[in-house]
Specification:
Blueprint (H helix, E strand, L loop, with lengths): L4 E2 L4 H5 L1 H11 L2 E4 L4 E3 L2 H10 L2 E3 L3 H5 L7 H7 L7 H15 L3 H17 L7 E2 L1 H17 L3 H19 L5 H27 L5 H7 L1 E2 L2 E2 L2 H32 L1 H9 L4 H11 L5 E7 L3 E3 L2 E3 L4 E5 L1 H4 L33 H18 L2 E4 L19 E5 L1
Parallel strand pairs: 1-2, 3-11
Antiparallel strand pairs: 2-3, 4-8, 5-13, 6-7, 8-11, 9-10, 12-13
This protein binds protoporphyrin IX containing FE (HEM).
Length: 399
């Protein structure tokens, strides 16, 4: 069977993926990328894929193919990262982390946003500003920094290292120099966390790092190595994705002033706004870390063991079979599953924290900002980005 093709090398796709994916989704259940990975497009099929157990997360083979070897700092980090684990080990670590995250995370995160955001907005009113740097990149860094217990003076350096390391490790190009630099970065990051742990052993503190070190469940605990990896896992997972959703939400409010009015009049609708924005503009355009567990058939198509499968998230998230007038934001939509945080055993571990942060963010914005004026009509998006991001977002905020 010949499957319709999606060319991921086409820069135009990355400027506006949803219409391209909608065309494919209405033609077929399964498409194929230019490099031969199959794409599952419809809502019911994606649910089945993520819950079926027929596909598992890829583990470490991706890095091995990119030239990283056992003993390399990145390889050793990734080998123990939640996204690359599976089976009982993955479940054990996840349940311990969930216990350490605890139910107070929502209150904590709201508190940080309520305290910090008004002061961040204040100098930006009535000016032409690109809000990405001063707001949407900065706030998630402050939130996760406080939550994990990273000192203010260290946050920017750790963030810069993580961004460079991620871009190099998973970027389009990989050369021996890139492998070397990436390993250098990850050694520095792992050493940073080890020092943080030593400091807490000497002088106890009450932050997530301290809770990860102490957490115990049915006599199980996390080893120090596991805590080091988790600390970075949480830090890496937390910033760019949340920043992406803050910026797409601001863009949506600038394009739909009536939504901003609705949030101000009825703050209880903020949660629905956050969900609609996550559904329409998922930070991960592609969930591309899964492979077939064994030879088999899915959606009428053969998969060989180890063969990759991709979920292009806007396709199922905008499937008219699951959502009425699916391309429109609708604050009165009945809650309905979307795949922005994935589903199944690897369902995003930080989703409650991300949702709490985004809700607090848009609540504060709707209280303080009366109107958002969009100063660039054509938004440019970073092509080939693992996390959807704009090159800039120039706005004028009116009180
Ligand atoms: C809007 C914000 C966020 C989005 C859209 C998002 C999305 C995702 C996605 C798509 C996955 C992959 C799931 C899979 O492999 O099937 C994931 C995993 C993960 N996320 Fe998030 N995430 C967000 C925020 C966060 C935050 C704030 C944290 C940490 C505090 C976090 C930590 C993680 C971790 C640790 C995993 C790995 C889970 C596992 O493999 O068991 N994420 N996230």
């Amino acid at each position: 069977m010949t499957l319709p093709e999606l060319d991921l090398r086409d820069p135009a796709f990355w400027q506006n993926p949803s219409p391209v994916l909608a065309d494919l989704r209405e033609q077929t259940r399964v498409a194929i990328t230019n490099d031969g990975s199959k794409l599952i497009l419809r809502h019911a099929d994606v649910s089945a894929l993520l819950l079926s157990g027929l596909f598992v997360n890829e583990g470490i083979s991706l890095l091995a193919r990119r030239g990283f070897k056992p003993g390399d700092a990145l390889y050793e980090f990734r080998r123990q990262a939640l996204g690359a684990m599976g089976g009982a080990e993955h479940l054990r670590v996840r349940s311990l982390v969930l216990k350490a995250l605890g139910h107070q995370q929502v209150q904590f995160v709201r508190g940080v946003v309520e305290r910090r955001l008004p002061a961040m907005l204040e100098p930006l009113f009535d000016r032409d500003v690109d809000v990405l740097q001063p707001i949407t990149s900065q706030l998630p860094l402050e939130v996760i920094g406080e939550y994990l217990g990273i000192d203010v003076g260290d946050r920017a350096r750790v963030d810069a290292l993580v961004r460079e390391g991620q871009a190099k490790a998973f970027g389009r190009e990989v050369t021996p120099q890139i492998v070397q630099r990436t390993n250098q970065i990850f050694s520095e990051l792992l050493a940073f966390v080890a020092t943080q742990i030593r400091e807490r052993r000497i002088k106890p503190r009450n932050d997530l790092l301290a809770r990860l070190l102490d957490v115990e469940d049915s006599q199980q605990t996390l080893s120090e190595d596991e805590v080091i990896v988790l600390f970075l896992n949480l830090f890496i997972g937390a910033i760019e994705s949340t920043a992406s959703s803050m910026s797409t939400g601001l863009l949506l409010l600038a394009r739909h002033p009536e939504l901003l009015d609705a949030l101000r009049a009825e703050p209880a609708r903020v949660a629905a706004f956050v969900e609609e924005n996550l559904r329409l503009y998922p930070p991960n355009t592609l969930i591309a870390n899964k492979v077939a567990k064994q030879d088999g058939e899915f959606c009428g198509v053969r998969f060989a063991a180890g063969e990759p499968v991709i979920v292009p998230v806007p396709a199922p998230n905008r499937d008219p079979r699951a959502f009425e007038h699916a391309d429109q934001p609708d604050l009165s939509r009945a809650p309905q599953r979307h795949f922005t945080f994935s589903l199944g055993p690897h369902f995003c571990l930080g989703q409650a924290l991300a949702r709490a942060q985004l809700q607090a963010f848009f609540e504060v914005c709707s209280r303080h900002v009366r109107r958002i004026e969009l100063l660039e009509q054509r938004i440019e998006w970073q092509p080939y980005a693992a996390i959807t991001s704009m090159k800039s977002l120039r706005l004028r905020l009116h009180r």
